[in-house]
């Protein structure tokens, strides 16, 4: 379930797992990569530029870099990333901000997600990137749900 605007994607999901389990799935490089579809070469740490390789065959030739902005243990995980524009990732171009917030909820953890900053992206690609990420985050929320359920 989610709401959207032209600049922001929002999703939320009740995960039947404790916050510590969801936090580990989000902030451990190997686990994050497992459900997200990347192989991270660096640990996730505050201020780090975590590099990796996308494992999806259609995008495997593109670099993946997350710039970790916030790590509030078992509460907030936030990073910035660059997007594929005209068939390449511009590592000097604008980024969007992805934020995961974890809250205690009856029966598990409420995971709230947002990605913002689309209005900064090139106008010629903004709508396509927004629509693609809106769909992609719906899929990724399902992926993390399966991951924490299978590996609790």
UniProtKB/TrEMBL annotation:
Q: Which InterPro entries match?
A: ASHA1/2-like_C (IPR013538), START-like_dom_sf (IPR023393)
What Gene3D superfamilies does this protein's entry cite?
Answer: 3.30.530.20
Activator of Hsp90 ATPase homologue 1/2-like C-terminal domain sequence ranges = 16-148
User: Which CDD domains does this one have?
Assistant: SRPBCC_CalC_Aha1-like_5 (cd08898)
The protein's superkingdom reads Bacteria
Q: What Pfam families does the record tag this protein with?
A: AHSA1
Q: Which family does it belong to?
A: Belongs to the AHA1 family.
Q: Please report the name of this protein according to its UniProt entry.
A: Activator of Hsp90 ATPase homologue 1/2-like C-terminal domain-containing protein
């Amino acid at each position: 379930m989610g709401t959207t605007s032209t600049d922001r994607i929002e999703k939320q999901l009740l995960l039947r797992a404790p916050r510590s389990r969801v936090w580990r799935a989000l902030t451990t490089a190997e686990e994050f990569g497992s459900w997200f579809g990347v192989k991270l070469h660096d640990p996730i740490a505050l201020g780090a530029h975590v590099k990796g390789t996308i494992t999806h065959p259609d995008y495997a030739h593109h670099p993946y870099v997350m710039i970790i902005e916030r790590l509030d243990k078992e509460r907030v995980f936030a990073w910035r990333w660059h997007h594929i524009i005209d068939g390449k990732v511009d590592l000097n171009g604008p980024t969007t901000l992805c934020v995961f917030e974890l809250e205690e909820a009856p029966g598990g953890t409420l995971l709230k997600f947002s990605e913002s900053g689309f209005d900064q992206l090139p106008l010629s690609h903004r709508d396509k990137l927004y629509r693609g990420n809106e769909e992609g985050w719906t899929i990724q929320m399902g992926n993390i749900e399966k991951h924490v359920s299978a590996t609790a």
